[in-house]
Amino acid sequence: MNVIDSCWRTRSNWATNRRALADCVVGFGKAAIGGKYGAIYVVTNPYDDPINPAPGTLRYGVIQTSPLWIIFARDMVITLKNELIVNSFKTIDGRGAKVEIAYGPCITVQGVTNVIIHGISIHDCKPGKAGMVRSSPTHVGKREGCDGDAISIFASSNIWVDHCYLARSADGLIDVIRASTAVTISNNYFTQHDKVMLLGHSDKFTADKVMKVTVAFNRFGEGLIERMPRVRIGYAHVANNRYDEWKMYAIGGSANPTIFSEGNYFIAPDNSASKEVTKREASNWRNWTWQSSKDVFKNGAYFVPSGYGSCAPRYTRAQSFKAAPGYMVPALTSDAGPLRCLVGKAC
């Protein structure tokens, strides 16, 4: 198991000690505690009302101002009627049930801190319509409509997305934008999508210079085209991920981001024109610091480095983890996506 999973998956008491998961994140999202210090809230009803959510629904839980650790009473498919606006200090924990958010607008993490999303499937997300959406017990606001991202992280910090399945959405699968930082994206399974992961709002949004994101132990599966991730301006540590294929490129960027690719396992597509892992959206990129260490390249894949000096992540001791050599990645990512956890047994 990788360092995140070995922290909690060997314990058979996970269902009675759910909050211990919050201690297991590594990388820049290490401080994300979610609802660790809050009550358990049980979702019993998959119904959704964006304006007046009923107790027992997911939306009623995520908008509360107090910390909550949100779990699910049974398997359910939740089709949201508008974007789900998540408040600070929340954990959405799908362990023990098969939980899908699908076929409608999906998750918005905007202007908040300390959110953990674990063990759910988020797929076939649609754009949201302009309209009123409740974001707290006391506030309903007019929304302009969302783009159809599976998870949009906007002006937020201390965020961890772990062991989710993400696929087939109208826009991106995960966007980290508008000066969001302190984010870890780990153990997820991405598949069947074009623009997978965007880190950075635009080439001119210089506030994204603060952005630090760890992308680790994920599996980028079949049917993906580009942006795994695409980075603008900020910093990304991309470590111990498995890339089954890409149609255009795997790791890209613009506006002088810094990228450290460490111990990844890249399997290039058969198309001879798409063997390069990297893509720069600029002509003056030779001084951008993009480096590769301990990566494994299969089927003719290759990484074009640039810049000078070390770009290793300056993690604190608590954030730090040792990236394994790339040849170990198929094992380290073999359980990416939601786990089938049974009460009383290790996951």
TrEMBL record:
GO molecular function list: metal ion binding; pectate lyase activity
EC number(s) per entry: 4.2.2.2
Domain of life where this protein originates: Eukaryota
Pathway connected to this protein: Glycan metabolism; pectin degradation; 2-dehydro-3-deoxy-D-gluconate from pectin: step 2/5
Catalytic activity as recorded in UniProt: Eliminative cleavage of (1->4)-alpha-D-galacturonan to give oligosaccharides with 4-deoxy-alpha-D-galact-4-enuronosyl groups at their non-reducing ends
Class in the EC hierarchy, top level: lyase
Required cofactor(s): Ca(2+)
One protein family per Pfam: Pectate_lyase_4
Keywords: Calcium, Lyase, Metal-binding, Signal
Record-stated family: Belongs to the polysaccharide lyase 1 family.
Protein name: Pectate lyase
Protein source organism: Theobroma cacao (Cacao)
